[in-house]
């Protein structure tokens, strides 16, 4: 079902990008956890009052009264959405369309491996990479929170929040992988896999500003990731997670089917 030689190759080929993204995330997470103190909170409140619309756009308008609310505001409104997205876009395009574009796919197909085995291996690698990336960041945030502020982090709610984050990126990665499997060339693949997710994020940012723009939230996938509902384990968050999972699963299934059936001009 999987080509482990190809899987090993992808691990080695992606380790540099993975490490860079992870290092930036860890540095930012540790910094944000450290900033959770009364003095810094006052500074952040003043910053929010100075630029209320801009802070709202990035989901940073409500600092909160607890550690998990603070982390939710400053981690899950921008950085943990954008940096994993960068990894997803670059990886998804490289895993399929990158091979087609540079001619390496002809070699892969010429080996005793079915198209299904090749594309399933690549899909598995992408999902596993995202899961590992987010698992490490979750663990780092939990450990440093416990070291600096013992017993202040609600671990159950924090875990639920990160499960929601994974399902969001699972859905987005499914779309990007589908684009990579179905596009005619690498430029087109990058255009659609980058443009649509960023457009969705910008729509979400506008809807966060409130007023008449709030209705825009119905036109973006990011609305299915609601940290405030996940933290309280609201019942509505369950169908949101289910929707994200189904979107991701459907996209991956379509991507695999398209790749297996498509004509490849190699």
UniProtKB/TrEMBL annotation:
The keyword Kinase does not apply. GO terms for cellular component: plasma membrane. Keywords: Membrane, Transmembrane, Transmembrane helix. The chain crosses the membrane at residues 12-36, 74-97, 118-144, 156-178, 190-207, 238-260. One of its GO terms (molecular function) is ABC-type transporter activity. Pfam families: ABC2_membrane_2. PANTHER family: BACITRACIN TRANSPORT PERMEASE PROTEIN BCRB, INTEGRAL MEMBRANE PROTEIN-RELATED. This is ABC transporter permease. It comes from Lysinibacillus xylanilyticus.
